[in-house]
């Protein structure tokens, strides 16, 4: 009998409001969904729908006003140290080298310099940064900077990798290459990191990468679609099935 994957994270009727000078603004309303171990989920929605807020609720930087976020069945009360985040704007410290930026998250987790060095070396190789270990961010292209951000997140070996539009500021060819490499990392079950949740505006990107797509409405963000992508990988954008999923997601957003 095949063992069923376990629920890793669950949002249970989550609502999030922010208090602004003009009053309270509801960004997310009554959000409920689960992610199981090994899934690749993408969240799409219009600008202002609360997509980035949703990621921050899952890593514990923000907390819901109503409802609850559960990780491995336990309600989260603070920062979720089993997650790591990859940002759209890279988030690198310009005075640190590539290796030092990758090691940054590890410094807070382990005092063992040998372990830190091994992890940095391993994930530098995984994301194709060999030879750039001593380079500074100003010496790197946008794609290389995002590789550093990805390696930094992977190096702490989180159970859940969260990504906030990681490819949106990259050129087309670099974005394609990085998406393929990300899929290789996700599909390699020898890796600790095999559950990923990503925010994107790009519908084709979401369909290319995901097992499931969560579609949010305009503000306040509500789930208007939870679509399982039943297509073999690698996925081809010109295939009829791919185009049908694009139309389906676009119709929900429109």
Can you describe this structure?
The structure is a single chain. The protein has 254 residues and is of the alpha/beta class. 33% of the residues lie in helices and 26% in strands. It is built from 7 helices and 10 strands. The chain has a 6-stranded mixed sheet with strand order 6-7-8-3-9-10, sandwiched between helices. It has a 4-stranded antiparallel sheet with strand order 2-1-4-5, with helices on one face. Strand 4 (66-71) and strand 5 (74-75) form a beta hairpin. The longest helix is centred in the C-terminal third of the chain and has 16 residues, at 172-187. The mean pLDDT is 90.
Structural descriptors:
single chain, 254 residues, alpha/beta, six-stranded mixed β-sheet, four-stranded antiparallel β-sheet, 7 helices, 10 strands, globular
- How many β-strand runs? 10
Across the major sheet, the strand order is 6-7-8-3-9-10
Order of helices and strands: EEEHEEEHHHEHEHEEH
Q: Assign an overall shape.
A: globular
Helix content: 25-40%
* Continuous helix count: 7
Task: Output the structural class.
Answer: alpha/beta
Distance between the termini: 42 Å
Radius of gyration, Cα only, in angstroms?
A: 18 Å
């Amino acid at each position: 009998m095949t063992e069923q994957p376990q629920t890793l994270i669950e949002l249970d009727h989550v609502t999030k409001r922010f208090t602004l000078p003009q009053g309270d603004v509801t960004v997310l309303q009554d959000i409920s969904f689960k992610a199981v171990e090994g899934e690749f989920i993408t969240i799409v929605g219009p600008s202002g729908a609360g997509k980035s807020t949703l990621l921050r609720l899952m890593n514990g930087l923000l907390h819901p006003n109503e409802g609850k976020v559960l990780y491995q069945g336990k309600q989260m009360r603070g920062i979720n140290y089993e997650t790591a985040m990859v940002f759209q704007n890279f988030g690198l410290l310009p005075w640190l080298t590539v290796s030092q930026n990758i090691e940054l998250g590890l410094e807070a987790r382990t005092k063992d310099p040998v372990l830190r060095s091994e992890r940095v070396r391993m994930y530098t190789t995984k994301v194709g940064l060999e030879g750039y270990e001593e380079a500074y961010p100003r010496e790197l292209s946008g794609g290389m900077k995002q590789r550093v951000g990805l390696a930094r997140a992977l190096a702490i070996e989180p159970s859940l990798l969260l990504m906030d539009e990681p490819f949106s500021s990259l050129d087309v060819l670099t974005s394609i290459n990085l998406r393929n490499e990300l899929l290789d990392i996700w599909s390699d079950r020898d890796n600790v990191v095999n559950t990923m949740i990503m925010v994107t505006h790009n519908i084709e990107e979401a369909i290319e990468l995901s097992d499931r797509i969560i579609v949010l409405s305009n503000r306040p963000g509500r789930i208007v679609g939870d679509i399982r992508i039943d297509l073999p990988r690698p996925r081809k954008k010109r295939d009829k099935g791919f185009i049908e999923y694009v139309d389906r997601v676009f119709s929900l957003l429109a």
